[in-house]
Amino acid sequence: MKQMCISLDAMGGDHGPKVVIPAALHMLKKYPQLRIILVGDEKVLHRYLKKLRVQESPQLQIHHASQVVTMDESPSSALRGKKDSSMRVAINLVKGGVADACVSAGNTGALMMTARFVLKTLPGIERPAIISLMPSTQGRVRMVDLGANVDSCAEHLVQFALMGSILTRVVEHIDKPTIGLLNNGTEEIKGNDQVKRTAQLLAEHPEINYYGYVEGDDIYKGTVNVVVCDGFVGNVAIKACEGIAKMFKQYFKESFSAGVTGKVAGAVVYPILRRLQKRLDPAQYNGASFLGLQGTVVKSHGGASVVGFQYAIEQAIIEIEENVPQLIRHELAEWLEEGEEELE
Amino acid sequence: MKQMCISLDAMGGDHGPKVVIPAALHMLKKYPQLRIILVGDEKVLHRYLKKLRVQESPQLQIHHASQVVTMDESPSSALRGKKDSSMRVAINLVKGGVADACVSAGNTGALMMTARFVLKTLPGIERPAIISLMPSTQGRVRMVDLGANVDSCAEHLVQFALMGSILTRVVEHIDKPTIGLLNNGTEEIKGNDQVKRTAQLLAEHPEINYYGYVEGDDIYKGTVNVVVCDGFVGNVAIKACEGIAKMFKQYFKESFSAGVTGKVAGAVVYPILRRLQKRLDPAQYNGASFLGLQGTVVKSHGGASVVGFQYAIEQAIIEIEENVPQLIRHELAEWLEEGEEELE
Questions:
Q1: Which residue from A187, A216, A248 is facing B74, i.e. has the nearest CB?
Q2: What is the pLDDT of residues B115-153, one digit of tens each?
Q3: Most buried of A127, A157, A221, B55 (most Cβ within 10 A)?
């Protein structure tokens, strides 16, 4: 691994420094070439470090920020009113070249708006998108967009597909990742106008290995490498899945704690349930990337555990290693140039 | 229960008469006031009845139809080219007043298009919608639209909400069912233009008990009685949930059949797993209603079991009992009149 520096929004998310600092310490041990800047209230952060008997060092620095963006704050009020928030300052460090990437578990909307304002989008990219790894029964599936945009037009969806394809190629070492377009059916007549137009553009695109339409259940079947959709649909779908997963968990818990039979059975199956839980643990899918910005920003789930936040930092490390924003910029420029040449 | 007659598309779905006929026989035993007309190839149906040692009777009749709509057929080709399909004839029987409702496990798109063409929509309803009961950790939740429409405008979504509210009121005996609008967040700034406009109309609507925005996970939390969304979003969301449920099931099976420990544990927890499976069995949520038509049409899942198909017939019985189409027509007319009076 090359030398790199990551800024962490240490106050963001449901748990703030309580989760961010232990995750940072773990990653510093794992990667000696890594430097981390903890951004947030220096008093609070110093207190946490002291409690954990850790001192500031060239590897682990604190950068003061006096404000915190709350989870329910509107993105525009965060952008206008919180210029010294831990989130904003962590992104500023990327903009200034001090950090190579930033990770935050804070308010998604505020993080996206601030990152877009500070870092700007890549030339040719109109809208950044959120991409994340999803669990599936086979292979590794990514889904884009998970909620950065609502009302995306066909051209935006094609850009999401292209960016998702590039990320997946370099991260998964797949030559031509397959791209599926999320639809309410796989027959040609299915879909709204936006999806039908997008399908046409994707099929014609020389850089995209377009598979065709996929349905909601294809996400978890691993039918394609990348599932593309508008952020409204993507967000609703993954939250619905989170909801049903929680319902299963609750039913499960109830079943294995009700009555003597349930409790005995629970004790017997405990190791199996542990293994099952590990396999389905959402922590390992934590860390959604903002694609299309002039810099790397990774969003952790607000309620992520220490292990979950480590996965988000890991995602940032991979993207720095692979130079994802520069790669997207480069391939986009090539493709746009080709388009211009064709027009001439 | 009053005397009633239901026509069944006996050839529809993945299993056709193999599922439809046993389900019909079960329901006839349960409800002596019920009459059922099996629609389909009379030779095939007679053979099935013979095998089950059942004879035609005033309670159970066969109505011949020479064609079958396949599951992957385009709705328009089914409508134009299969005028003597079991699906079409079953709907014709409702139109002609011979049957009070029709149940089919066939091709959803074809069923919707044919039902709409034959039965017509209620005055004032521009688009019919699909509504279904969903599993939830508390209470009974219905979701509308599950895929009849893509690109619904705000006015359509309000009609879906109103129809869903009426159905839920009479079926669940809830005075003023709460209506939630599916969105990618609950904050006011969230959502696309369609959702924002719909929220405004729902809030102003005198007949709708509008709760506000709900997110994907609220479906399974039972936050509201009825979740309203565009059919594209609804379809993707429930299919994604089906996908994750299948993934859980597969992981589960693997865990309890791997190695000696797994198998022993599997044997111990077997009764608990059975109970759990029963609780989560999709059969009990089978039977989606087409709302907004001048007649009652219930869609069974294509792959439904005999028990699942029974639930779909049960749904039709409830809607006949409660006179749902007439109720919607009546309340809609009242509301439209009030609107006109206000304008005067």
A1: A187
A2: 999 999 999 898 999 999 998 888 889 999 999 999 899
A3: A157
The beta strands (E) that lie in A122-251 are given as 129-134, 141-144, 178-182, 209-214, 226-228
Residue A129, classed as helix, strand or coil, is strand
A246:B272 CB<8 A: no
Closest CA to A316 of A89, A67, A105, A56: A105
* A71 vs A68: CA distance, rounded Å: 9
SS3 content of chain A, % helix, strand, coil (to 5): 50, 15, 30
Residues of chain A neighbouring B184 (CB-CB closer than 8 A): 147, 150, 231-232, 235-236, 239
CA atoms of A136 and A274, how far apart (whole Å): 19
Label residue B336 by pLDDT band (50, 70, 90).
confident
User: Is B241 touching A (CB cutoff 8 A)?
Assistant: yes
- Across the interface, whether the CB atoms of A151 and B215 are under 8 A apart is answered no
Report whether A115 contacts A130 (CB < 8 A).
no
Average pLDDT over residues A176-189: 93
- Distance, CA of A344 to CA of A338 (rounded, Å): 10
Question: For residues B265 and A265, what is the distance between their CA atoms, to the nearest angstrom?
Answer: 8
B158, pLDDT greater than 90: yes
ipTM of the complex: 0.88
Instruction: Output the average pLDDT for chain B.
Output: 92
**pLDDT 10s digits, B29-58:** 999 999 999 999 999 999 999 999 999 999
Which residues on A lie below 8 Å from B251 (Cβ)? 137, 276, 279-280
Chain B residues whose CB is inside 8 A of the A239 CB are 184, 215-217
A280 close to B (CB below 8 A): yes
pLDDT at B343 over 60: no
Task: Return the residue matching tokens 């998970």.
Answer: A146
